[in-house]
């Protein structure tokens, strides 16, 4: 079982997702659940394409962190 970080962003009326470790692998959906399902399928197809072209599957090396910043109020 492989695991990849997926970044999800609000996009218009739905969501867009990408996998930083898999350049060019994107998906979208109207809901978070639909986006997750579409992204899982996109990753499966992406990996199958890499295999069919005898290309290596990249290691998953991306991770996410939350950064807090102070925001001063504008006067």
List descriptors.
75 residues; single chain; 3 strands; alpha+beta; 1 helix; Double Stranded RNA Binding Domain
Helix and strand arrangement:
Layout: E1 7-11, E2 14-18, E3 26-29, H1 32-52
Antiparallel strand pairs: 1-2, 2-3
What would you note in describing this structure?
The chain is an alpha+beta fold and 75 residues long. It has one helix and three strands. The chain has one helix at 32-52, and strands at 7-11, 14-18, 26-29. Strands 1-2-3 form a three-stranded antiparallel sheet, with helices on one face.
CATH class category name? Alpha Beta
Largest sheet features: 3 strands, antiparallel
Neighbour order of strands in the largest sheet: 1-2-3
Structural class label = alpha+beta
The gross shape turns out to be extended
Q: What is the CATH fold-level name? A: Double Stranded RNA Binding Domain
Number of domains: 1
Strand content: 15-25%
Tally of strands: 3
Summary, kept brief:
The protein is α+β, with helices and mostly antiparallel strands and 75 residues long.
